Amino acid sequence: AEESLRRIEEESANMKLLLTSLREKASDIKDKLSYLKKAFEDKKGLLKWPLPAAAIRSVQSYGKYYDESVKSSRVNKGIDILTESNQSGSAVSRGEVVFADFFGRMGNLVILSHGGDYFTLYGNLADIRVKLGEKVDAGEVVGHAGNTGLLQEAPQLHFEIRQGSQAVDPEIWLERR
């Protein structure tokens, strides 16, 4: 019993050290990325679209809509940009790849952090062209439009902007077409 108690106390002390270390790293990362947050906020209404204008067939807007395919209302937390197969999906702003893998109904998904608590999501990708931890510039290809997500029949790029965990209307952030 004494040996078990000693191990538990040792693990507890190690956990406290780990948490302290992670808090310090998180603070350092936040400080290093704070300039990106300001740069991202300054581009509201000016961000380039993640697909070339000539490649955009139509856009399913942000918000609630009726989906005929499932005969019910749904909420789109981003925009779905219908396009041709394999159109290059590009980063809308400089950022760091924080996720790049298959993710259920989103299909192949790339998430970029733009500092502070701003993120962009690129889903339904046919392929992923970036790696976790990679820094990308605006206009750099993150993948190609596809139909890897749930219920996706036509090639498209699902695009979201999030502030923390809250989805915001991406069309407010993108330049006018």
Task: Characterise the protein shown here.
- This protein has 177 residues and is an alpha+beta fold.
- It has two helices and twelve strands.
- The chain has helices at residues 2-41, 170-173, and strands at residues 58-60, 63-67, 72-76, 79-82, 88-90, 95-102, 108-113, 118-128, 135-136, 141-145, 156-163, 166-168.
- The strands form two sheets. Strands 1, 4, 5, 6, 7, 8, 9, 10, 11 and 12 form a ten-stranded antiparallel beta sheet that branches. The chain has a two-stranded antiparallel sheet with strand order 2-3.
- A hairpin with a 4-residue loop joins strand 7 (108-113) and strand 8.
- The protein is globular.
- The protein starts with a helix and ends with a helix.
Attribute tags:
two-stranded antiparallel ribbon, ten-stranded antiparallel sheet, 177 residues, alpha+beta, 12 strands
Concise account of the structure shown:
The protein has 177 residues and is of the alpha+beta class. Helices cover 25% and strands 36% of the residues. The chain contains 2 helices and 12 strands.
